[in-house]
Amino acid sequence: MGAMLSRWQKIKRPLSVIGVIAASILLIAMIVGIIGGYLFNWKGTGVGQKTLWDWLQLLIIPAVLAVGGYLFNYSTTRNERRLTIDNQQDAAIKEYIDKMSELLLEKSLRKSKTDDEVRMIARARTITVLSRLNGKRKGSVLQFLYESKLIVKGQSIISLEGADFSNTDLRDADLSNADLSRANFTQTDLRNAMLQGANLTYAQLDGTDLRGVRLERADLSHAKLSNSNLKGTSFLGQAIYSDAELKGVDLSDADLRGADLNGADLSQAVLIDSYLRQADLSHADLSGANLRKARLWDANLNRAILEGADLRGTDFKGGADLKGANLELANLSRANLKGAKITQEQLEQTIWLTGATMPDGTIHP
Hints:
By secondary structure, this protein is mainly α.
């Protein structure tokens, strides 16, 4: 039935276009005939013998009715198409849950081993159905997998590697301790979601809204969070971001106390906004991190580990802006501070500067 309706829609669309073109040609021909009849007194047109009201009845009113009819038909067709797509997606969700329930109850999916065929079938069905769904329904699939205990960290049954959850609405979702590694969450709304202890290694989170998300003990190692929004986010302490890509991310007012940012790319990151709300990076591990051109001034870097961090500038632009940052007892050994905006007083607050490249380019003994 759905296939027949789809074919009819494909046929009806060009027919509508042809009808509009034909009506437009006819209307133009009539206008040219009227103008020519008045200007050149063409014989046989009868233009001069008719009043304005006659022409309104013959030309304008039918044209308005034709346009109105077309717009009504277009609106109806669009609504029908939307309804058809909604019905198709609802049917796809229902079929998916029915088939997965069958694998759970009849094929012992939860007790299956890594290379068992039933797991491959379950993963294939999951990846396939996601490609047919919009953002809202993708969220339903993820919630089903989570509540069915199929994506529990450390004992995940269905791998979400390459699964497309982009543009999904996951606001307030509870995905604590879920295995979401290598999944695609680009442009996803994760505001106020609960991701404590979740495995997000190598996950794609570019442009994702993570405001208010709970990330205690979550592992975001190697995750891509470029241009994502963590503004005002709390509970980021104890989360792991080693080698994560955080380029251009908004972390102003975020609580990053004790976070593992080892090797993370924080270049151009914003850690303080125009309202002077600042990130707290105290006790954070930023060793080997890239903080070039990051806005860090007034950030709390008390006891932070910045060993080997890249804070240098370029020939044309300054390095990380550490103006006013609290660097008391911070470890900056082997960090590259060439061109960074930092005062001598701040450098004296640090506990280690061994082997660091100083703002003037010299190496600290």
